[in-house]
Structures are given as C-alpha cells and as structure tokens.
Amino acid sequence: MRLILLGAPGAGKGTQAAFITEKFGIPQISTGDMLRAAVKAQTPLGIEAKKIMDAGQLVSDDIIIGLVRDRLQQPDCANGYLFDGFPRTIPQADALKEADIALDYVVEIIVPEENIVERVTGRRVHPASGRSYHVKFNPPKVEGIDDISGEPLVQRDDDKEDTVRNRLSVYRNQTQPLVEYYSSWAKSGDARAPKYRHLSGVGSVDEIRERIFQALEN
Ligand code: AP5
Ligand code: ZN
C-alpha cells in the first residue's frame, strides 16, 4: 500500500496514520516528525527549520524533497509507505511524479476550520514516537503520560492559536490546490494516477478510522 494522507493541520493525519501503517505494515513518512527530530537534535537543518515552523510557514521545497528522497531509499519502504504532511505544495507533488514514486491512493481528510483550532490547541504529543493525544477528545490513560512508553507528553511549539491560524492560511493557499491536482489526475485516465478519496474527519477517532479503511477497499 502506497498512499498520501492529505488534510489541514489538525485534521487527524498523524492519529489515523498510526492505524493505517499498522494494518498494512508500512512506514509513516511524516515530514513534520522528521523536521521536529532535526530541531531536537539541533542539526543545521533543525536550527533553520525551527524558525519557519514556529511562524507556521513552510520549509523550502528543495529541503523537503531531499529529505523524502533519502527516506525512500531505506529498506522499510520496499512494501509501501504512507506520506503524512507531504506533499504540501505543487512543486513537491511534481517532484514525486517526476521521480515516478508509485502511489495507490490519495486520501483527503476534511475537517472544518472551526473544529481545527480546538483540536490543535488541546493536542499533547509524545515526541519520540509522534503519537498524539487530545486533552478532551483523545486523552491518554494517565494525564500527561504516553500510554505505551510511560514518558511525558508535551505541547508542540507551533500549537499556539496564532500560529495555528497562520498554518491554516498557508494550508489554504499552498496545499489545498493539491486536491484539484490529485482529483483531476485520477480522472484523467492515466494508469499511474493514484485513486483519489475524500471523507469527513468529523466524528470519533474510531469512526474516521473505519471510513478510511473502507475508502481503501475499493
Ligand atoms: P506537520 O507536523 O505536518 O503539521 P500539520 O500538517 O500542521 O498537521 P498536524 O500534525 O498539526 O495535524 P494532524 O493532521 O497530524 O493531526 P493529529 O492527528 O495530530 O507540520 C508541521 C510544520 O512542519 C509545518 O507547519 C511546516 O513548517 C513544516 N513542514 C512539515 N511538512 C512539510 C512539507 N512537506 N513542506 C514544507 N514544510 C513542512 O490530530 C490533531 C489533534 O486532534 C490531536 O490532539 C488529536 O488527538 C485530535 N484528534 C484527532 N482525531 C480526532 C477526532 N476524530 N476528533 C477529535 N479530535 C481528534
Ligand atoms: Zn501530524
């Protein structure tokens, strides 16, 4: 299985990626998680990316495309992969297409903006694994603690309300055009085109998981 999860900040890409990668035995390629790891390790890329991420802007296409290209060389990508948060611009999507990276599905998770701010500001994450929780909608078993590792949860630096609003406007301007990009490619008759599926991301985490699994069955 080779797919892209497309959706606004806070749409539930990371949450649902965990179920899909488990079911199909494929790695999650989250450019956001990769950048946060670089920030934590204070690499030159991380130091540069931190400023951009904290402002809610996008890291340059060249850097992101290079990161993904290297990641795809790793042996765990042989059976498939799930892209989360990538591609995010038309040039990133073109880079995938030009490199002939196979895709079976593009799944868009649609959540109205009024739900997003509450979701993102209540999010708590386990940095090492990328697992995310929500104080109200998806709480951990013990407050502030990751269910699996027992380690503390933290709030992402870019989950402040102002930054979230910037991220939403960047999404609208730079990423939303990918909906048209992939839906029209799917209709074009090109045999290489991934199937395009879209579904509502409003409902319980379990409901959305079932919707996605169903969408991937046909
Ligand atoms: P990235 O990490 O990709 O962030 P994002 O796209 O803004 O998405 P989020 O991680 O915020 O949301 P999500 O959809 O994963 O939601 P989640 O499942 O956690 O990118 C961060 C930054 O890195 C970017 O701003 C940019 O600077 C840079 N970057 C990354 N990739 C890049 C690229 N390709 N090009 C350039 N720059 C790039 O859920 C959110 C919350 O909602 C959680 O609290 C969760 O528990 C809760 N929740 C989940 N499902 C439900 C539900 N059904 N009901 C209620 N609550 C729910
Ligand atoms: Zn995420």
UniProtKB/TrEMBL annotation:
It catalyses: AMP + ATP = 2 ADP. It comes from the Bacteria. Residues 123-158 form the Adenylate kinase active site lid domain. Residues 30-59 are annotated as: NMP. Its EC number is 2.7.4.3. The keyword Transferase applies. One of its GO terms (molecular function) is AMP kinase activity. One of its GO terms (cellular component) is cytoplasm. It is found in: Cytoplasm. Residues 122-159 are annotated as: LID. ATP binds at G10, A11, G12, K13, G14, T15, R123, S132, Y133, G203. One of its GO terms (biological process) is AMP salvage. Keywords: ATP-binding, Cytoplasm, Kinase, Nucleotide biosynthesis, Nucleotide-binding, Transferase. InterPro entries: Adenyl_kin_sub, Adenylat/UMP-CMP_kin, Adenylat_kinase_CS, Adenylate_kinase_lid-dom, P-loop_NTPase. Monomer. Consists of three domains, a large central CORE domain and two small peripheral domains, NMPbind and LID, which undergo movements during catalysis. The LID domain closes over the site of phosphoryl transfer upon ATP binding. Assembling and dissambling the active center during each catalytic cycle provides an effective means to prevent ATP hydrolysis. Catalyzes the reversible transfer of the terminal phosphate group between ATP and AMP. Plays an important role in cellular energy homeostasis and in adenine nucleotide metabolism. Belongs to the adenylate kinase family. This is Adenylate kinase.
